[in-house]
Structure to design on (808 residues):
């Protein structure tokens, strides 16, 4: 049985899994919109410090943001390599994407630890609670994305992701872009709009 | 003649479907999952109904002490939560599962294993919520869980933990099913089944999925924040720490109002299938019905604050939400008139489903009218927290959703189980339900306007509430009895030796073109659709009734393999939340690690398991 017979054409022409990940992303938008709204509603409402302006380290987070942004470019190049059957391009850029993701997670772990030592906890004030919840859930999404991409990398190394199965990678890449786009909102709203 | 169909099939060398517990646990067949949804939801419906009966017995006479005030709080909270999340939503899900693929001419949903996962997560969530009774700690803060009643300070027990965590589990089930059916409707339609030819039930279900996808993330966030407050000591909804209790209400009702349409739109869809078939006329104003459904869903996201008129939002917010709420009467009115237009001049056949459909229209209009009364903010201030509101939402949720779902059960029963339900008992069920329902809920309008408050475990004598409350309790008992008639009817039909024909009602849609119950692969060959009411078209082209479709061998048709990974993944979800609940215990981190391992292990095996044989 060839793949085509097993998966007859869909009504829209879009593969089911691709439509599903777009649908899921649409739903996730509301999830992050709610978390961001909560952060904004509680902005400036903390009764005690530490306050955001005392504690943020913009340069470090900027580097993390830049790397996450670049990883979106890298994952496009990797997908392009995968679709062309260019193994070196596929796995090389995918490795770069994963490294960027890992760096971002590392940055967040460092940041959270640092804040903790400065006395900011979820229990301390509303800033701590809403900040850790929002960025923590984003970080969890990045972590799941890294695990997903890593398993595709391992499958790729074993030669299980030929161009015909590039969709397996494409839906992970779509998710990765989404996680990235959410951060593009979080970074200015949380870190930069902070006068 | 119909009786011989099954024997005939056996002779043709068709393998019977596998049965037994393992077959049900590993099934990925949308029809079996539909039946699982239906059976579980009906049991939860009976539990919720029993809770309601105890509430009614407590309120039968003034100063009654059948139950304690504490237990009364648990009863009304669990009654509301159960009926909404464990009865009406999954009963709709039963029809989504069984009938969306059949109505659009597909062999299964887009993601059969995800479908099984949704069901198991729903079941575990429902069991988790109800397990709270075993700890004498059922949720007790209302189905809306208003902050800061739900905070650790005012609800120190496990009660609201069960609620906040149980609803998160159920939310995962709804979201997974939402993605699945959204994709199924868009992508799995048979050739020629354009969107604008889809049966109205599919349209309304499709819009419902969109509402689920956009509103459940919001309640998920609200529940996560509440859980953090309760488990980890944050102050999202704790005023002492600066938290804003109004934020809870906004997040809750941004979900809560679309949720109302999640409960009623599938019911609209079912009615729109029943009325044309028993009026022998196509649905009147099909496109207007589609667009009014879309408009209701759209407006549904802009009216949440009408649940909050009494919180003092100010005249501008009150006016805007008042007007937006009144607007909803327009698309809903369009629907009512189109249903009436469908029956107008039709050759009406008064079968049981038709009774429920007509009963639905009458009862839903009454609920709709009291809804318009609430939309006026000054009037609402008088009605808030009284039994008038209880009357309103039971007219739309029971008079609306449950009447329609019951009608749908009578309509589709022969297709699902291959036996007809008895017409006489069905009509008895209808009349008992209609009378019992109105006796229970109509007097609530009056006692409500007279000032009887909701959610209070008793009332003093001498306020004029006694006789009406007694009538309400008698009504509730009749209502409960009507479902015993239904159960008797079901048992009787199961024992019946007469098999239902494929098309007992001269139906309009594709599910009637295949044997009752359908074979595992639904359609021996995928149908081609040439217009709305596809099966009527087919029969017209044929020049009359089609011959009884034979059961055929499904050899060569590829079906998804059964899988136990969805079940295990769902178990992982449940374990994860139980572990979170016990995170503070000595082994807390171990529990969480173990649960995450089960979840990841199941998901990985699921992903790498070959889906089709």
């Amino acid at each position: 049985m060839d793949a085509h017979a097993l998966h007859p054409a869909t009504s829209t022409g879009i593969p089911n899994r691709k439509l599903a990940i777009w649908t899921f992303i649409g739903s996730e938008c509301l999830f992050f919109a709610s978390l961001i709204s909560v952060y904004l509603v509680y902005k400036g409402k903390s009764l005690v410090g530490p306050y955001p302006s005392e504690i943020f380290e913009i340069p470090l987070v900027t580097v993390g943001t830049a790397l996450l942004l670049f990883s979106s470019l890298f994952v496009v190049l990797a997908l392009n390599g995968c679709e062309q059957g260019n193994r070196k391009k596929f796995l090389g850029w995918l490795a770069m994407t994963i490294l960027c993701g890992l760096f971002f997670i590392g940055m967040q772990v460092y940041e959270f630890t640092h804040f903790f030592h400065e006395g900011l906890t979820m229990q301390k004030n509303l800033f701590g609670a809403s900040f850790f919840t929002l960025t923590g859930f984003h970080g969890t999404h990045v972590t799941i994305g890294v695990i997903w991409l890593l398993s595709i990398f391992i499958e790729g190394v074993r030669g299980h992701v030929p161009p015909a199965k590039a969709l397996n990678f494409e839906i992970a890449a779509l998710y990765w872009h989404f996680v990235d786009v959410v951060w593009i909102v979080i970074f200015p709203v949380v870190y930069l709009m902070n006068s | 003649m119909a009786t011989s169909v099954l024997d005939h099939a056996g002779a043709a060398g068709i393998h019977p479907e596998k049965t037994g517990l393992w077959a049900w646990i590993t099934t990925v067949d949308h029809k079996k999952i539909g039946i699982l949804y239906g059976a579980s939801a009906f049991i939860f419906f009976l539990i919720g109904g029993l809770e309601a009966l105890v509430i009614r017995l407590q309120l039968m006479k003034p100063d009654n002490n059948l139950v304690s005030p504490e237990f009364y709080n648990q009863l009304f909270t669990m009654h509301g939560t159960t009926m909404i999340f464990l009865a009406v939503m999954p009963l709709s899900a039963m029809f989504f599962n069984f009938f969306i693929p059949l109505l659009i001419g597909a062999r299964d949903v887009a993601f059969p294993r995800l479908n099984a996962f949704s069901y198991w997560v729903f079941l575990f969530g429902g069991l988790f919520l109800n397990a709270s009774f075993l700890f004498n700690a059922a949720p007790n803060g209302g189905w809306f869980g208003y902050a800061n009643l739900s905070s650790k300070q005012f609800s120190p027990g496990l009660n609201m933990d069960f609620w906040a965590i149980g609803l998160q589990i159920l939310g995962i089930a709804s979201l997974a099913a939402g993605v699945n059916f959204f994709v199924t409707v868009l992508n799995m339609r048979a050739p020629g089944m354009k969107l604008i030819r889809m049966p109205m039930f599919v349209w309304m279900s499709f819009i419902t999925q969109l509402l689920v996808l956009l509103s459940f993330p919001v309640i998920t966030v609200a529940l996560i924040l509440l859980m953090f407050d309760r488990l980890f000591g944050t102050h999202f909804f704790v005023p002492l720490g600066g938290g804003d209790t109004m934020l809870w209400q906004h997040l809750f009702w941004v979900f809560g109002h679309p949720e109302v349409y999640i409960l009623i739109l599938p019911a609209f869809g079912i009615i729109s299938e029943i009325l044309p078939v028993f009026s022998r006329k196509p649905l009147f104003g099909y496109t207007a019905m589609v667009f009014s459904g879309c408009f209701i869903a759209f407006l549904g996201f802009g009216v949440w604050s009408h649940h909050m008129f009494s919180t003092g939002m100010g005249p501008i917010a009150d006016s805007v939400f008042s007007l937006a709420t009144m607007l909803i009467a327009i698309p809903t009115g369009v629907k009512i008139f189109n249903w009436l237009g469908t029956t107008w001049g039709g050759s009406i056949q008064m079968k049981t489903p038709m009774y429920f459909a007509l009963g639905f229209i009458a009862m839903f209009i009454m609920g709709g009218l009291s809804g318009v009364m609430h939309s006026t903010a000054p009037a609402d201030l008088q009605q808030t927290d009284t039994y008038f509101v209880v009357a309103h939402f039971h007219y739309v949720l029971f008079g609306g959703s449950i009447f329609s779902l019951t009608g749908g059960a009578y309509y589709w029963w022969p297709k699902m189980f291959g036996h007809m339900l008895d017409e006489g008992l069905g009509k008895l069920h209808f009349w008992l339900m209609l009378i019992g329902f109105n006796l229970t809920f109509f007097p609530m309008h009056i006692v409500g306007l007279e000032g009887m408050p909701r959610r209070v475990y008793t009332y003093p004598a001498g306020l004029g509430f006694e006789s009406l409350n007694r009538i309400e309790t008698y009504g509730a008992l009749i209502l409960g009895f009507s479902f015993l008639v239904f159960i008797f009817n079901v048992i009787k039909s199961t024992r019946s030796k007469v098999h239902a024909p494929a098309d007992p009602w001269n139906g309009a849609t594709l599910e009637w073109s295949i044997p009752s119950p359908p074979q595992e692969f639904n359609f021996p060959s995928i149908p081609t659709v040439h217009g709305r009411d596809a099966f009527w078209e087919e029969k017209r082209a044929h020049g009359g009734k089609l011959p009884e479709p034979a059961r055929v061998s499904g050899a060569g048709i590829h079906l998804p393999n059964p899988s136990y990974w969805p079940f295990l993944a769902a178990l992982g979800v449940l374990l994860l939340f139980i572990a979170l609940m016990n995170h503070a215990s000595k082994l807390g981190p171990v529990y969480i690690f173990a649960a995450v391992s089960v979840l990841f292990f199941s998901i990985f095996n699921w992903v790498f398991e070959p889906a089709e044989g």
In short: The CA atoms of residues 208 and 262 of chain B lie 5 Å apart. DSSP finds 19 helices and no strands in chain B. Chain B has a mean pLDDT of 93.
